[in-house]
Amino acid sequence: MRAGVFPDYEAMSAAAADVVARRLGEEHSSVLMLPTGITPLGMYRQLVEMHNSRGLSFADATFFNLDEYIGLAPDHRASYHVYMKENFYGLIDADPARVFVPDGTAPDPEAECERYEAVIRGTGGVDVCVLGIGRNGHIGFNEPGAPFDSRTRVVELSESTRKVNAADFEADRAPERAITVGMATIFEAREVMLLASGTNKAGAVAAAVEGDASESVPASMLKSHPHASLFLDEDAASGLGRGIAG
Ligand code: PGA
Fold first, then answer.
1. How is the chain split into domains, by residue range?
2. What residues have CB less than 8 Å from 114, skipping those under 6 apart?
3. Among 83, 133, 233, residue to substitute to test ligand 1 (most atoms within 8 Å of Cβ)
């Protein structure tokens, strides 16, 4: 797992956007798997800017979201459908027919997971998966303990994740369950980029990079991925010792 450390959030975001743009330039029909959260907003801004200013096109790409809350309609303001529309898909030339987000209101969530996994398989697999990381090391909504061989499935959210996400829900509590793409599904992406910013991620980043690969730190699975890179700002890298490259 290679690590790039950038002076600040904007530089980290620009570097990540450059990699995504380059992949798209090489292969217009790339399949991208994308995260929500605060961390990727800078990367999305940069990609939108490249679309507006120099015509970077996403028209032939396919997009999958990593996760969605169960019980939130696609037009709920805290849903990841709305997040992605407002921050990315609605601002570029994405083809709606090739934008996939798990349906959190599907009457049979388990069947929805199977359907989603089958759609991913049907595209020939993910070319680039972009991830954030939770303070507890989660990726997507794969919380500590998520089996490395897991597939897209219904998960219970940890109390700590619900607390972090509570701000999106005003009086409501954050939902208790979500659909997340599985660990094995993430691992099968040809390239994985994990973005982290801020000192509150430093511990999780260090545990993922410097500890053994363990299901108790989901992001540590990426240590054995043939093409995984970390994009860190200095704060997120501040827990790392020396010699993290390689
Ligand atoms: P954040 O979330 O980007 O909002 O910090 C990342 C995550 O929990 O995966």
1. 2-211
2. 152
3. 133
